[in-house]
Amino acid sequence: MFEGIPADVGLVHEGERIRRNDMQVELGGPQVNEKFELVRLKPPEDIEQGAIHIIGPDLADLEEGKSYPFGILVEIAGSELEENLEGVIERRIHEYCNYIEGLMHLNQRYDIWIRISKKSFKKGFTSLRYIGQVMQELFKNELPIIETIQITFFTDPERVGEQYKEALSIYEARDARARGLTDEDVEVFYGCALCQSFAPTHVCVVTPQRYANCGAISWFDGRAAARIDPKGPIFPIEKGECVDSLLGEYTGVNESAKERSMGEVDRVYLYSGFGYPHTSCGCFEGIAFYIPEVEGYGIVHRGFRDLAVNGLPFSTMADSTAGGRQIDGFHGISIEYMRSQKFMQGDGGYEAVVWIPKEIKDRLADYIPAPIYEAIATEDDATTIDDLKAFLLAHNHPVVQRWAEEEEVKEPSRMPVLTAGEIPITTGGFRILLKNARVYADKVIIQPVQPKKPGRGESS
Questions:
Q1: Tens digits of per-residue pLDDT, 259-269?
Q2: What is the pTM of this model?
Q3: Ordered structural domains, the chain, with CATH
Q4: Residue 289 has pLDDT above 50, yes or no
Q5: Distance CA 302, CA 95 (A)
């Protein structure tokens, strides 16, 4: 199937990571503002069957070790295709690219991040055309409803910029079509296991009011995907009984999580970052992170390049959030989920949010409740916890009332002061691992261990 491709292609290469020292070139990624991947349904007469176009320099012409603006446009036609399948098919780009030896593809939509390894480049993988050939073969074989396909790669910065703006408007139009339906209106949610090669215990639960963490799969996308590919990575989940409507716990979701994670995850809260938070892989658009000093959440998105208000960059918090674990206070989310009326409702919704980067706050101005909007700080208002406390007090944020109530009744906080995936304890000749540990304490005292002084008759 893949004759003439100077790299192996297969499932075995999914999840491969390419470190900076091992990369030949980087396309998109955190150092680049404009990047995208987009699928568009077109009339068959507008598509040149099997064509692969490269607009701008090819891989062999790009400087080693550098990052470049990048875009992928896949145009398709087929008698059974519908416009609402574009997002579903688009998400397969991530899967198919990761089948290629020496190619790492992360994220989606306007956040794509691709690296080509030096090893594969030296073996002859020197053209984007090879990526196009692999994608076309896999699309034809796995989704036969695609009758005609052409792929265009953009590396010319000016053309990337033009296409990027158009792609953003298309993403927004798709998302807008999915708004309005509620979780209570349906009996079936959808699960997405596209990222299990990176996080084996993670499955995204997609509901009408909770987009996939990557921001690329809506409930309608999930329904369409499950219909056209019943054995594929997107599948229906019967809701079952609603155990807790505020936290978003459903028996059907719990059963699905237990089965798909092989027992590692057996409870999921869809609308809370504590207790049993929804798991994350690594493709999330943003992170909701708990700030214990103010008892509220900060939000940071992948494109934010400075330190968040807690002094940590996105990359560091991503390490605590990803991997299919349930870590209290670190919650992978999509930007579209932040537009939902059920956004973090188990923790207080936007009344629990205290800090958001200005770019995201501006984008969500129509969705953040007006009474709380001005009370949420951005990087222009607070860059440290002390700054944040002062801002919240000055703007009478709802969390401030919580501080006053707790001071009055002198009750210790019930939020965990320490969470970890595993805490090792060595005692009595045994090593004990506390998995997904949550430690609560009224007070933490850290003291240096003093060396034991030798007693009488002991040598020092």
A1: 999 899 999 99
A2: 0.73
A3: 11-178 (3.30.1650.10), 288-300+349-415 (no CATH)
A4: yes
A5: 20
